[in-house]
Amino acid sequence: FFSPPQEIVSGESEEESNGVNLMEFSDEILLHILSYVPCTDLVLNVRRTCRKLATLCLDKSLTHTVLLQKDYKVNKDKVKQLMRDIGKEIYQLNMAGCYWLPSSTIDHVTRCKNLVKLNLSGCHVTSLRLSKMLSTLQHLRSLAIDVNPGFDASQLSSECKATLSRVLELKQTLYTPSYGVVPCCTSLEKLLLYFEILDRSREGFMLSGQLMVGESNVPHYQNLRVFYARLAPGYVNQEVVRLYLAVLSDRTPENLHAFLISAPGSFAETGATKNLLDSMARNVRLDALQLPKAWINGSGLLQHLKFNNPFYFSFSRCTLSGGHLIQRVINGGKDLKSLTSLNLSGCVHCLAPESLFRKAEDDIDSSILENLVVSCCNLRHLNLSAAHHHSSESIGSHLCQLLSRLKHLLSLALPVCSITDVAANVEKPPTASNLVPQTFGRKVRIGIQTYPRNLADQANQKIESSVFWALMGSLRFLETLEVIGSSFSSAMPRNEPAIRNSLPPCVRAQSVGDSEVAAISQLTYLQSLTLAQLPNILTGSGLINIGLQCQHLRTLSLANLGMMGKVVYMSALMDMLKHCKCLRDLRLEQPYFCAGAQFFQALSHCSSLQRLCIVSRSGTLQSDAVMSFMANCLEVIMCHMFMGESLTVCKNLQQSIVRSFQADRPALNVVIFPLLHEDLTEVIRDVPMRHLDEITLFKSRVAEEPPNLWW
């Protein structure tokens, strides 16, 4: 693309050419085009093609910020050359998730004397290397690092600590109990903490949440504006985060405006945390809030907290009722136009007036949702998943009709049972497909209705009249959509053995199938799609429509569609994949999935594919087909397959892939392992956090964090 003909290189014009001469564009247009090219390619390749591009490629607008975080082709030598050529021009450097680069690569960052922002999350950095590097970065104000076992703060030099004392933003991922560099950062305004500490060592010993010897220094929070902590499952993570919070409970920063703690499972409130929350209620006005469910459930905390211009709320997994939501958060219909992101995932009573005598499956009160929609009319991210939000048959508007008023939505997560037409459920008698048991075992032979495969024929069936079809038509600019069964749970949780049995889908969800999937094809700008536990998928015909219409689709996650004993949508999926030219991430979770030659041949049409994850109980694979796929798809750098094959088959295939392709793909990460093997959790702990968090583990990601939490 950027290899002009020899005449242009020598300065001669191509008057007679009928084609467009790239060099005739204005500098502004060329700079805009070049901004889409990875910086390594610009500096090391493109700028060598001609004099004009040599000048433009070094323009400050292109070298000011260097993003290497998903440049999977970059290696140590390229980084070294890049820093040598433009190091002094770089003010922001993002190397997050570059797990394949050796730790010595970090030494070259010292050439970037003017760095203001540096992200090294997921990179291998020792205490001594960190000290040496930070000693030279006197202008640094934003830093992201990992704290691994063996980290020793006593090895940090005085020059390094001087740099840290000027840092205003710190993101720290902890893999061992430690304060890391927090005590050295005396001017912190934003602190993001990710706790990924395991309860047991590789040798099987229980770990303690006590900090390492010599880490008695306490954090300095007096200037803190944003505090965020995300905990992975495990008791040790809870112990360590309490040590970080203890300082906050003594004296709450006056300028604190965002306080967020994301903790799975039970994270009990203590006297110290209660004192902290009481102090916050008295002294601060918040713009963003997220708390563990135990800290909110049954307390009057929300009634006392004061908010300024809130932009993010998360009440995930709380028993907060709709009445409390309206009264205490929305303040009886208060104007909340500032709110752009709301996470009510797993908040089973949030659309009901009270929760005391209510069952989770009871109908919602549409007036609560209507009040929410009117008050928060500028919502861009909304998560209502992991709950039964059933619209009433006779009272009020349907949930989909109310959500269609949120014209600014960019991402949306819904439970499957919330999108079904109430009238259709009432009038339509049970079909054979509705009666098929959603369990493993003997398959039941049923008559399968023939579904049309193109959008026009689907329209003839008048599926446009459904409330979900209308919702999809009204949210034309939606980029992320998740439709997840309210009782769905992945077969591969974080730190536990694989789940062998799944809960049946909600009764209201039994009619959701191919026509609803076809409705999604109206989302022209869709980039990420997750569908899980849609029981009435008969052919998967709607997937083909999505492949044809949603040409911007980059991430696709499908799980437990249709009957559990057979992959009924395989043919449609293969047809769909032939049209997904922009697809980069594909995750499939389905029992009895056959990853054979036909599947991988269809997947080879996805020329942009980078990451593939397949999770399948009793699933099978063909090693030759996998090897052929890897050879044809040169961009693939992650292949995770957790199937029903033997350990020997899995190990042999994994070794073959690594041996054949690792040299040309430095970022290649391959994990092929039996899903039900007892050592699965040990294998998972070695997966780079970037892949584990973004694709391998299933979770709802809509409104998971505040927008623009980190750059």
From TrEMBL:
Please name the CDD domains in this protein's record.
Answer: F-box_FBXL18 (cd22128)
Q: Tell me one GO biological process term.
A: SCF-dependent proteasomal ubiquitin-dependent protein catabolic process
Domain F-box per the UniProt entry, residue ranges:
19-66
**One term under GO cellular component:** SCF ubiquitin ligase complex
Q: Which residues form the signal peptide?
A: none
**Pfam families reported in the protein's UniProt record:** F-box-like, LRR_FBXL18
Q: Which PANTHER family match?
A: F-BOX AND LEUCINE-RICH REPEAT PROTEIN 18, F-BOX/TPR REPEAT PROTEIN POF3
Question: What is the recorded name of this protein?
Answer: F-box/LRR-repeat protein 18
Native species of this protein?
Spheniscus mendiculus (Galapagos penguin)
Q: Which gene encodes it?
A: FBXL18
